[in-house]
Amino acid sequence: MTERTPSHSQPDDISPDWSVLTGPRVWVVFGAITVPFAVGVTDTRLMTPLAAPGYALMSAMTIVGSYLTPQYTFWLYWIPFCVCSYVISVVCAAISRN
Amino acid sequence: MALASVTAIGAAVGEHGGANADTAPRSPSPSEAMTVDRQRLLPGTPQETAYFEIDSGTDGPTGFVLGGVHGDEVNGYRAAEDIVGWELERGSLVVVPWANKIAVERNTRHGPDGDLNRKFPADAEPETDLARAIWELLREYDPAVVLDLHRSRGIYRTHNKWVGQTIFPTAVDSAPADAESAIAYINGVIPRTMWFHRFTKGGRLDGANPMVVHKAGADLDTPGFIVELTDFLVDLDTQIRWTKLIAEQLLARYGLERRSPEIDT
Ligand SMILES: [Zn+2]
To answer: What's the CA-to-centroid distance between B186 and ligand 1, angstroms?
Structure first.
């Protein structure tokens, strides 16, 4: 009988670590960008300094967009705004881990 | 007199039907302290629309306020509806809340004759019955100041081609300085975070475009203002509140102070 070599679990670096994309850090940052801003949009009196990152991002996107694709209504920008906020959140979360 | 007019106003608004509740014309609530007289422009025609003369009973200037020239700019006619309910220290106001009534009822920018605010060429007759009726009313009252309340999709000199968050004065007397004064006031109200939403002063209206306030400045030498808000990131209640605060500031510059000014929160 040959002795069975002890099995090793797969090394960590082979299976992808999805927490980079979906971990709690990502959603904390995403919420920080989007929630205070979305609240401020429903009632301008609630547009606090916490809303500044979302406000700046949305303003920048629509300013550029108004020159590149003037036919689109600004409401459509909520979709790329959320995508952009998510990408920024992933980057911020990754940086904060290192 | 005032009380009888209040009843008539209810009837006037009852004529507007079909639009949804968010955008349909609403009955103004005039103050009992003012004499309010409801009249009609183009009576008996499909474009018939009400206007209101509210009189303080004390001698003073007359102001002229237009809302709903573009039927989908809800802030303008909601603000005008509320202005019908204001109490003035002196003088009087003539308010046409739903200037382009059919466009307001359809919630569209244009009425049956297209863009109402392109029918007022300087030094010439207005180009449609509705434009002529508005212009005749303006000439009849010969106001000290005229306001036309609008909104735009984007922000002037920030977004390409849009003109929001701007006050455009006529090139008459102190109108440009009065616009600056109202802008300084309203920028103190806008949340600091909303940096791009700070109001700016637009170019002077001198008759170069066929708009009613352009024409008032060029043909009648009347101080006047186009007030442009935006619906970009600004809820409707805030648009209406800011529109009224600006109207209040501008009218006060021409001796039309309110007895109890708007309180902003
Ligand atoms: Zn307009």
So the answer is: 20
